Amino acid sequence: MSATQRPTALLIDFDGVLRSFDGSINAKIEQRYGLEPGTVLETALEWDRLLPAITGRITRAEWLATVADTLADRVGGPQRAAELMDEWVVYPGSIDPVVLRFVRDVRAAGHPVCVATNSTAEFRDVLDSFGLTGEFDAVANSAEIGVHKPAKEYFAAACALVETPPARCMLVDDIDRMIRGARAAGLSAYRYAPGDDLSYPRRAFGL
Predict the structure, then answer these.
(1) I need a labelling partner for 104 at 20 to 30 A (CA). Which of 28, 95, 128, 144 fits?
(2) What is the CATH number of the domain that holds 105?
(3) Residue 10 shares a structural domain with residue 101
(4) Matching Gene3D superfamilies, A to Z (predicted)?
């Protein structure tokens, strides 16, 4: 990568990159309700259910209520399903200190950083709960933009938020289709995996 091709702005995914989850925590809850581990998440991520939530058409609470409704018969009725969801949402996950340091180092080097996420309209509350509100120059939340990753329109909006053309933006994400979508939209992109030291994107930004 030559100096003229170096990215000058970073777009970074939240869940799966900045935030990670220990699946065993909610698995224990699900097992107490007679469900296989991962059932709640799998249900929540069903596309027809998820899409309205991540494009701002329904709230997070409404989205999770549809999950409870779907699982009610399997856990013993609506009340039990509501109790399941109340327990399931308590665990917030954790922020990866290595990734957060990378974000801070990119910004310290003078490059804007945008958190780029498919999330619900309440996402800024999540950032605030982790004390991360001031860690980014912009927030590209699909629920606010009205278009989700990996659509070209999403990436165009995200790049505009950091006032940087796509060719000078790099996306760091953990999902292949997001990487492919970013590249198709003209960005450079790097696939993150848990435990990654981010040495490649660090070099790309000259860190």
Answers:
(1) 144
(2) 3.40.50.1000
(3) yes
(4) HAD superfamily/HAD-like
